[in-house]
Amino acid sequence: MSRRVTMEETCTAVETFRRDTLTPLEAPPDLSVEEQLEIYRKMRLIREFDGSVKGLWKQNLIYGLAHSYICAEAIGVGACAALKPGDLITSTHRGHGHTIAKGGDPKRMMAELMGKAAGYCGGKGGSMHIAAVDMGMLGATGIVGSAMPIAVGAALTAKTLHQDNVTVCFHGDGATNQGVWHESINLAAAWHLPVIFLCENNQWAISLPYDQAVNNPEVADRAKGYGIPGVSVDGFNPFAVYTAVRDAAERARRGEGPTLIEAKFYRYVGHFVADDERYRDTACNVLWEQFDPLTRMATYLVESGIASEAWITEAGEAAEAIVAEAIEFAKAAPEPEPETLYTDMYSPGFMKAQGIEL
Amino acid sequence: MQTLTSAAGEEGGAVSVPARTMTIKQAINETLFEEMRRDPTIVILGCDVGIRGNPFGVTKGLYEEFGAERVLDTPISEAAIIGSSLGAAATGLRPIAEILFSDWITIGMDQLVNQVAKIRYMFGGTISVPLVIRAPVGAGGGQAAQHSQSFESWFSHVPGLQVVMPATPYDVKGLLRTAIRSDDPVLFFEHKRGYEIKGEVPDGEYAIPFGVADVARAGTDVTVVVVSIMRHKALAAANELSALGVECEVIDPRTIYPFDYGTVLKSVAKTHRLVVVHESNRRSGIGGEIVSQVVERAFDQLVAPPAIVAGLDVPMPYNRTLEALVIPNEARIRGAVLKVMAR
After folding, report:
1. Mean of pLDDT values over B20-44
2. Which of A230, A270, B244, B314 is the most exposed place for a label (fewest CB within 10 A)?
3. What is the pLDDT of residue B7?
4. Which long-range contacts (CB under 8 A, 24 or more apart) does B323-326 make?
5. Confidence grade of residue B211 (pLDDT, cut at 50, 70, 90)
């Protein structure tokens, strides 16, 4: 039965997180200084990109729904840093971060958010449905949990065709209570497929806290039931995510099958652009903001002597400039032609044979 | 409780009890309060129905009054929401399940189509399923391919289900009450662009029986059958056409199954022309079924081929210009009426 979360409970949860989950930022030896700087740049770019969306939505330049990846930057970027170019990812309704982390072009992303022809999906997908197949990003989805079996299928292709790529299936804690979540992990485990199920546990399925949606909030515990490894990591720490995904990918490439990784963090911003968060006390968000992954990463880079304060500032300005350029590009980009309405519904040969046109 | 039917509502102004103006959203909310106060076996299940009070505010205040045991926030588990509602309905509760967007009913399709719809029949009438599934339908607003669909054709195709799609606060209130009191499963579809539509609602309890159409506008020249909020676009088109001397009779069936063919046939016997308007895409849609029923039963009455104005057969695109091409508008309705009149 659901109940409103109290400030006292939040304080306890924050302290439990600090004690049991939070790990210090410490780069693994296989990450070069340049790679560490690139992790920060990408995290910062996601922050700037998604930070701009709400304002653009309010100006009616972005239509429909948009869900932010803010708070989760360390997960997408940490995970994708552990992947090789041919590796694949599947995404969620919060796909902007995954796309940037996998190397997507902010211009084409912003054009998609503005429904323009130059967007990744020609303006037909929008915020919730960006796919960047050339980058190995198989697409974002508006249906919670729906990418789970798609990732399994991508891994089946790799195994069947003896390719050595792995697929990372990003999903939220909400997805873990869909039937298809269980079916997918079982299938991948039974067939030893090269897939990594990466649960971004932000602790909220819109208005329902995760510990009220389940009796055991430890997602990684579920791995035992499928006979695969289950790992729980600090989702505010890109290196922790990197290490877990790297190890899982090595295991998958050796043919040993899937891994379930739970990255624990907290969504201290609204569910989507228009969320008034009336289901919780937003004062609780502030307690979680102390773990902000951007601040932690910047502090780490400076304190370990990898980067100067000036470099951090410049990286921020560079990210702002990239996003500003993307916004200008998207604003100036043409609308899709009405004739494109039916394009891509079926393969071109079918469309021609059926005489389908506007 | 009075039972009001047909055009006794907002158009005719024949309701003698005092009336209030409210939105569809408020009409749903008020009906849920009234029915839950009356019957302690009614429970609500769904994502965000409790503390958040539903994304559109439809269930606002229910959690506070009836508590977490009767207003249940569920995990994102559509199959379990629909299936557990069925189990509860079969054993003594009257659940009202809510699916956040009707598109996601597909995740619980086995429970709905193979279980909910068939339990009474398969088990020889030994089990009743007094279950309402409420879900927002429809497009407009850039919610793209997975958040914009209307599946009334699919579900009215399944024997054992009832499908309700009202478009005014008055109809919503009367039909939701009937749905909740029905001993058989009901899909209650609310158009997400319709929640703020205002209209008059009489004080006091009333129910509108299923299978009774509302003649939203009387006319002599063309029968225009509408589904959901297409009612309002058709009425706007009818007013424009009136200036051209064409009088449309706009009929809102309000329930897709059971469907009031009697009222439609009576109208066609007068107008001899038929146009059907629905937002969901045309192919294998409810418009085809309505036309086929009318042609089969009243072929000799028609002086022109019927026309269907429907969504285009394409997944809903995100871009607003493309989206607007897909959804029927007043101009398309007007064009179809004029084409039918030209014969």
Report:
1. 98
2. B244
3. 40
4. B323/B139, B323/B140, B323/B142, B325/A338, B325/A341, B325/A358, B326/A341, B326/B139, B326/B281
5. very high
Domain A7-354 has CATH 3.40.630.10: no
* Cβ distance of A126 and B53 shorter than 8 Å: no
Asked if A37 and A238 touch (Cβ cutoff 8 Å), the reply is no
By the CB < 8 Å criterion, does A351 face chain B? no
The dihedral of CA B120, B121, B123, B125: what is its sign? positive
Domains B2-207 and B214-341 share a fold: yes
Q: Does B61 touch chain A (CB under 8 A)?
A: no
B283 touches chain A (CB under 8 A): no
Residue A208 with chain B: CB contacts under 8 Å: 47-48, 73-75
Whether residue A52 contacts residue A273, with contact meaning beta carbons closer than 8 Å, is answered with no
- Which residues on B lie below 8 Å from A179 (Cβ)? 77, 79-80, 107
* Residue B147 annotated among the catalytic residues of the structure: yes
pLDDT in tens, A92-131: 999 999 999 999 999 999 999 999 999 999 999 999 999 9
> What's the rounded Cα separation, in Å, for the pair A42 and B301?
68
Q: Mark A87-126 as b/e (b = at least 16 C-beta within 10 Å).
A: bbbbbbbbbbbbbbbbebbbbbbbbbbbbbbbbbbbbbbb
Multiple choice CATH, B214-341, 3.40.50.920, 3.90.79.10, 2.60.120.590, 3.30.1250.10: 3.40.50.920
CATH architecture of B2-207: 3-Layer(aba) Sandwich (3.40)
Length of chain B: 343
Q: What predicted TM-score, i.e. pTM, was given to this entire model? A: 0.93
Predicted pLDDT at A356: 75
